[in-house]
Structures are given as structure tokens and as C-alpha cells.
Design goal:
By secondary structure, the protein is α+β, with helices and mostly antiparallel strands. Helices cover about 60% and strands about 10% of the residues. The protein has 10 helices and 6 strands; from the N terminus they run H-H-H-H-E-E-E-E-E-E-H-H-H-H-H-H. Strands 1, 2, 3, 4, 5 and 6 form a 6-stranded antiparallel beta sheet that branches. A hairpin with an 8-residue loop joins strand 2 and strand 3. Helix 2 packs across helix 7. The longest helix has about 60 residues.
Length: about 475
């Protein structure tokens, strides 16, 4: 490897890693803002949230990796152009295409890695992420006592306090215990108390002081008796224990989500597509059979006649052509046939629409495995020539240009994918339309950078307009 190649690779790797982790951090912040309501106030351990963010970061690679390639390639060649290093490279007899070869090899390796990641690692990460997020969203709120409000989070208990400080000390405590006694609650009142958990975290301890307990004895007959006994017990200190078992997060088996399309690799997606095709064919044959049976049920003709009959022409008004004695029966049969077909369609149409939508989604996800890899190559051939043309490094103009081109790519892909899901566009064309549209632009920019075009040189356009203004003044 020549020293110039090693120089270019080092100049590319550093901004690539920096931009990749910065973009991943920004996307993770967006993720936290989106799911913050499901994460706060549920008593999760820090490693559970960290695990969720780890799985979410795998899904963000599809957006962070192409943007990092585009931005780092612009920054690399922009810095080389700004420091006149590209001029020195070209003066040494090395063209821009030859200077891009070592980075192109790096991009090819990155492309292969991204394909293997999207085909093998990403489905597993999506599977873990979906199952963990499902468990988090279905976990109960943590036991949080608010002053002046009855809290029914613990089964069979209603707890209310007048005041609560930061250290967990309570005052004005009122507890309704609904366990046993045929639904008659036990009432506990205390002036003050303290809230703690056991060392294993399975029980909540309320250390109550200076209180009284009221317990009404249930009637044996089941009817209300105003003279039934009311037991009152005073205490100086007591410590009831409440089980927190209902607040534990139960981990769902990830295999329960394994049949979802984003959790499958290429082989699994192809197998699922074949299964959906067979189900659609079976549903179509069932609909035809039901429609044929419904038609035969209200048709009086039992078979075909060997006699040759002259075809009868039917006018626009079909009812007039029906014999008078058969009009009512024909209309009744027609209504019954239409009603039967409508009932058949109402039963099968929603199922058919769901199956078609799922089949289209499998074709989209199948192509997505390849478009992530292709986008890295495409955006490199857009970013590298752009950097050589604008000759600006750093995080200023390159960031603006990179985000602009990436937004164009992302918008085209998103709109085309939505159109494909609605059935308006072929899924294969929809997933590759951004690559097809932007490939001529990449070739054009590469050509302009090779001939040292001043396509994005502000000074060039400034001098051009100054000359044009002077020509108009002379006229």
C-alpha cells in the first residue's frame, strides 16, 4: 500500500467514526424522547434501559451509516482540497479516480459488512428490541404515593396520605384493606409513618406510628346488620407488609415475535412470502367456490341442453326482456345472489387485504437488505466528488450539503415505500428508486470533480455575475 493511500484512508476513518457516533447519539436521543413516557416512573434498573437503547441503536444503523459515509467523504475530500493536498496529489500524476480507489475499497468492505449486519444481526436485534419494549410498555407503574390521592396500585389496598417528604416519611395515613370479610374493608389510620422496601425488593414496608385500626365483623346471614360488631384496635407502632409482585416486569419469550417480517433474514422472508402466496391462492379458490355455489343455488337450470337455440339479444333494460311470469322470481334470485356474494366478500375481503399488505411488506423488507449496502456506495460517489468540488472541510458547509442530499435520498425512499405499501408502486422499484434517481447525479459530480469544475465555487459565480454586470453597463 502506498503512503498516499494510507494517508487518504486515515483522513477518511477519523471523520467517519466521529460522525457515525454523533449521528447515533442524536438518533438515540430522539428514541428516548419518543418513549420517555413508557420509561419514566416504572422503577426500571439502569441496565434494562441500557439494554433497550443497545437494541434500538442497531435499528438506527440503517440511517446513521449512509449519512456518516456521505458526510465523512465530503469532509475528507473537502479538507484535502482546502489544504491544496488534492492539487499536490494531481500534480504527482494521480487522478481523482485513483485517489478514490483506496477509499472505494474501504466502502466496499463497509458495504459487505452492512449487508451481513442487516441480514443476520439486525433481525435478532429487532426481535430482542420488540420483546423488551413490549414488556416495558405493559409493566405497571411503580408504586408512587401522591399526597391527597388514593393509590390503588397494590391489589386489594387503597392508600392515601396527607403529606410526604423526600425521605419517604408520611403523615395522615389512611389505608383500606379489602382482603377477606366478604368485601368489608379494614381501615387503618395513622398519624405518621415511613415507607421502605425489603432488601430483596419484593415487599413494601410501611412503618406506622400512633394509629388505630377499625375492622367490622361480617354478618353470617349476608344481610346488613346495624348492630354488627366493630372492632377498634389502637397501636403505637406497626409495620404492615405489602407484596410488590404485581410490579415485577415479566420478560416475554422473544420467539413470540419471531414470525414478524423485520425479525427475519433473507431466507426467512422468502419462506414467509411463499407461505403468504399459498394462503392467498387458497383464499382465492375458496372465494370462487363460495361464489359458484351461491350462483348454482339460485339457478333453476339443472344442465345444458343439446338443442340449438338462437341467441336472444338483451337490451339495456334487462327487466323488460324477462317474461312476465318470471320477473318476480328472477328479481328475487338476483337479490339473493348479490346478497350472498356481498356476504362472502365481507368475510374474505378484509383477510385478503391484510394478506396482500403483509406480502408487499415482505417484498419491501427483502429489498431493504440490499438497499442499505447500495446506499453506502451511492452516497460515497456523491460525497467524495462534492468535497473535491467545494474544497471546504470542517463541520460547516459539508454538514449542510450532506444533510441536504441525505434528506433528498431519505424523502424519495420514504415516499416510494409508502406508495408501495398502498399497492401503487412495485415494491422492487420503490426500494431502488432513490438509487436509480441519484446515480446519474453521482456520475455527473464525479465527472465535474475530475475536470476540476467550479460547480459549487462561490467565487466563480461571483466573478461571473460581476462580468455580466459590467457588460450590461457598457451596453
Amino acid at each position: 500500500m502506498k503512503k498516499i493511500h494510507l494517508l487518504l484512508i486515515k483522513a477518511f476513518i477519523k471523520p467517519f467514526l466521529a460522525t457515525f457516533f454523533v449521528v447515533m447519539f442524536i438518533l438515540l436521543m430522539f428514541f428516548l424522547f419518543k418513549w420517555i413516557d413508557d420509561l419514566i416512573g416504572k422503577g426500571f434498573e439502569w441496565y434494562t434501559i441500557l439494554e433497550l437503547m443497545y437494541y434500538a441503536s442497531a435499528a438506527n444503523v440503517a440511517m446513521a451509516l449512509p449519512l456518516s459515509v456521505l458526510l465523512s467523504s465530503i469532509m475528507t475530500f473537502g479538507t484535502l482540497g482546502e489544504n491544496y493536498e488534492l492539487v499536490a496529489i494531481k500534480s504527482a500524476g494521480i487522478s481523482l479516480q485513483k485517489a478514490m480507489r483506496p477509499l472505494f475499497v474501504v466502502i466496499i468492505m463497509l458495504t459487505i459488512s452492512s449487508f451481513l449486519f442487516s441480514n443476520y444481526m439486525l433481525p435478532k436485534a429487532n426481535l430482542k428490541f420488540s420483546s423488551l419494549l413490549y414488556d416495558i410498555r405493559n409493566k405497571k407503574l411503580s408504586f408512587l404515593i401522591k399526597p391527597g390521592v388514593f393509590n390503588n396500585s397494590i391489589p386489594n389496598f387503597s392508600i392515601r396520605v396527607d403529606a410526604k417528604d423526600e425521605n419517604g416519611k408520611l403523615s395522615g395515613i389512611l389505608i383500606y384493606d379489602h382482603r377477606g370479610n366478604n368485601g368489608i374493608p379494614k381501615v387503618i389510620m395513622a398519624k405518621e409513618g415511613e415507607m421502605n422496601k425489603t432488601s430483596d425488593g419484593k415487599y413494601l414496608l410501611l412503618k406506622l406510628k400512633d394509629g388505630v385500626q377499625y375492622e367490622e365483623q361480617a354478618s353470617t346471614s349476608g344481610a346488613y346488620n346495624p348492630r354488627q360488631i366493630l372492632n377498634r384496635t389502637r397501636f403505637k407502632e406497626t409495620e404492615p407488609r405489602f407484596s410488590l409482585e404485581s410490579f415485577d416486569m415479566n420478560r416475554t419469550d422473544p420467539n413470540a415475535f419471531g414470525n414478524s417480517t423485520p425479525m427475519l433474514n433473507l431466507r426467512g422472508i422468502a419462506k414467509k412470502g411463499d407461505s403468504l402466496t399459498r394462503v392467498l391462492d387458497t383464499l382465492g379458490r375458496y372465494s370462487v367456490r363460495m361464489a359458484s355455489g351461491n350462483l348454482k343455488q339460485y339457478t333453476t337450470t339443472k344442465g345444458y341442453s343439446s338443442l340449438k337455440v338462437t341467441p336472444k339479444k338483451i337490451s339495456d333494460n334487462i327487466i323488460k326482456d324477462i317474461p312476465n311470469g318470471s320477473k318476480q322470481a328472477s328479481l328475487d334470485n338476483a337479490v339473493n345472489i348479490v346478497a350472498g356474494m356481498m356476504q362472502n366478500l365481507s368475510n374474505t375481503a378484509p383477510r385478503h387485504a391484510d394478506l396482500v399488505g403483509e406480502f408487499i411488506f415482505t417484498r419491501i423488507e427483502y429489498q431493504r437488505k440490499f438497499t442499505l449496502a447500495a446506499s453506502c456506495i451511492l452516497l460515497f460517489f456523491i460525497g467524495a466528488p462534492l468535497g473535491a468540488i467545494i474544497r471546504k472541510g470542517g463541520m460547516g458547509l459539508p454538514v449542510v450539503i450532506a444533510i441536504s442530499f441525505f434528506l433528498v435520498y431519505h424523502i424519495i425512499t420514504t415516499v416510494a415505500e409508502k406508495s408501495a405499501r398502498e399497492g401503487s408502486t412495485n415494491p422492487i422499484i420503490a426500494m431502488w428508486i432513490a438509487v436509480i434517481v441519484l446515480s446519474p447525479l453521482a456520475a455527473f459530480l464525479t465527472y465535474k470533480a475530475t475536470v476540476d469544475s467550479a460547480l459549487f465555487d462561490v467565487n466563480y459565480y461571483k466573478q461571473f455575475f460581476i462580468k455580466l454586470f459590467r457588460i450590461k453597463q457598457k451596453q
